[in-house]
Specification:
By secondary structure, the protein is mainly α. The chain contains ten helices and no strands. The protein has one domain (about 35-210). It is globular, with a radius of gyration of 18 Å.
Length: about 210
């Protein structure tokens, strides 16, 4: 089962995992606003969203999304609006500067640690991105040899990719959190909130204008 195709898959999956995108921007934003715990639950949501798409792809249900332009656009615009909304909240927070007068320790205590909210944001941004579903539908079959059980091999490959994402984003969040003493300075925090908010809006706009 672990032939040369699998080795190639590992290399490509690793590159795709560490390439910055909307997931990285969202985790960065939530490390700043909610700390390591919030970022971890965001990462869990992201990974579960990817696994959901991979399962739908393995079952053949993603083909419906690929073949129906109307359904694809509905999901795409919903995902784009969700990213834009999260980005806009970050920009508003940065502009308002509600933490500006607080000390670093007070800012740590003020962090929003509600895990469900972080999880939903991570899960929602991936579940409402039809490009993830199309990615698994078109990418994974290239690494399945003739005669192999398609569903089992698809889930295996997707599981490897999702595990890479979990490890990478968790490590990234932990490294950022170790810099919390610097990140939580008022001026730094506001700039990072603004940058990540702008990036999330940009990713949302890009998703809205992408074709199938």
């Amino acid at each position: 089962m672990f032939d040369s195709r699998f080795i190639v898959f590992l290399g490509i999956a690793a590159i795709l995992t560490i390439t910055p995108g909307a997931d990285t921007a969202l985790v960065t934003r939530n490390v700043i606003s909610r700390g390591r715990a919030g970022a971890f639950f965001t990462t869990l949501g992201i990974c579960l969203g990817c696994l959901t798409h991979a399962t739908l792809s393995a079952l053949g249900l993603s083909a419906i999304l690929k073949s129906s332009e109307a359904l694809f656009n509905i999901v795409k615009f919903a995902g784009a609006l969700y990213l834009i909304y999260i980005g806009a909240v970050s920009l508003w927070t940065a502009w308002r500067g509600k933490h500006e007068a607080a000390s670093t320790q007070e800012q740590v205590n003020l962090r929003d640690r509600r895990p469900l909210r972080s999880f939903i944001e991570g899960y929602g941004t991936n579940l409402l991105n039809p490009k993830v579903s199309i990615f698994y539908l078109t990418f994974l079959p290239q690494f399945i040899s003739p005669g192999e059980p398609v569903f089992r091999k698809s889930i295996l490959l997707a599981g490897v990719h999702v595990s890479m994402g979990l490890i990478w984003l968790t490590t990234y969040a932990a490294l950022l959190d170790r810099m919390s003493g610097w990140l939580l300075r008022s001026s730094v925090r506001r700039r990072l909130e603004a940058v990540t908010g702008g990036l999330l809006i940009a990713f949302g706009l890009r998703l809205a204008t992408q074709k199938r």
